[in-house]
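Re: flavin-adenine dinucleotide structure - here you go.
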Amino acid sequence: MDFDLTQDQREIQALTRDFARAEIEPNASAWDRDHHFPRELFGKLAEIGLMGACVPEEYGGAGVDFLYNAILIEEQGRAIASGPAFSLHNDIVVPYLLHYGNEEQKKRWIPKACSGELITAIAMTEPGTGSDLQSVRTSAVMDGNHWVINGSKTFISNGQLADLVIVVAKTDPKLGAKGTSLIAVETTTEGFKRGRNLEKIGMKAQDTSELFFDNVRVPADNLLGGPGMGFVQLMQQLPQERLVIAIQAIAAIEAAMEHTVAYVKERKAFGKSIIDFQNTRFKLAELKTKAQVARVFVDDCIARHLKGELDVATAAMAKYFATDLQCELIDECLQFFGGYGYMWEYPIARLYADARVQKIYGGTNEIMKELIGRTL
Ligand SMILES: Cc1cc2nc3c(=O)[nH]c(=O)nc-3n(C[C@H](O)[C@H](O)[C@H](O)COP(=O)(O)OP(=O)(O)OC[C@H]3O[C@@H](n4cnc5c(N)ncnc54)[C@H](O)[C@@H]3O)c2cc1C
């Protein structure tokens, strides 16, 4: 990123890059092949202080700002390792605990989330509804001093590994969005079951699962914030999730450019390097320009977010623009690899497979355009 990083941020960037090069990059392709990565990786990241870095020190974090997490997202992207969902845990789920949890909840869960002992997930999507979150059917009914949860979720990242899942449930179905609440469920609770680890086109090492709730009883205090606050809480946190996806897109775009430029300089056809064809230079010049435009915009969004000024529509623009470009650019880059681009052992093939979902999760790009459209 083109920020004027402080000395400390530069050191963290170097530390993160070393970690990615040593622990992630050499293994990423094998994790994809095995559809699995080791859970211990969360603990290793915690050892270097990068799990829950934005969490205040009193709850076990480093008390730094989002720029540190953005550095981690970029370095992981550069290593082409989509398996470990660090960012989902750090940037998406832990903030719900931090912003809406009471003191007792924060002390119970956040320190373990920062040490890598407790892995988190958020379960919004259901087999019958994804984009239309108001139609969630999972229910939570008060019985004595417990919520009793019934329903099922699908496509949940970290679903197999998670120790704690934040469940989006209807606590008052008559009220629609206003009857939606967030309830934390420990995955050891009776009645909670994990379904399949779903087989995907890309992000093969990442764990994406179905989850089932059959009369799952959790204490009343597992509710985050007040009853009926869930929809507002989701709307407040989704801009950061969308910014994270945009940053991941930029990292993937830059990794694709780097691999492609190296390849076209090396590979020969008709007695010259592929880069010596004007078509190659023109096409890569166009892609580099688009990549730079997207980088500047996303960096600006990071700067706005650091000041607490990133609004819903601008985050939606960043998510849709960066991920559309990610898919377009990686497809064009892969073409320069010829048949080798289609082979799994080439990083460009993994980048291609991983890119597609970016236009779908975190709110589809069509929903992003709806959000932008509402501001016109
Ligand atoms: C790998 C992966 C990981 C995921 N991780 C998580 C997770 O951790 N937690 C979680 O809760 N969910 C997760 N999801 C789910 C993801 O957020 C949803 O798939 C996504 O929001 C879309 O919902 P859907 O699949 O139900 O599609 P649908 O909502 O059925 O949409 C189908 C199509 O209709 C379009 N559409 C829908 N509504 C409109 C509209 N109003 N205007 C125009 N077009 C519209 C959509 O854009 C899409 O093209 C994950 C998904 C994947 C694939």
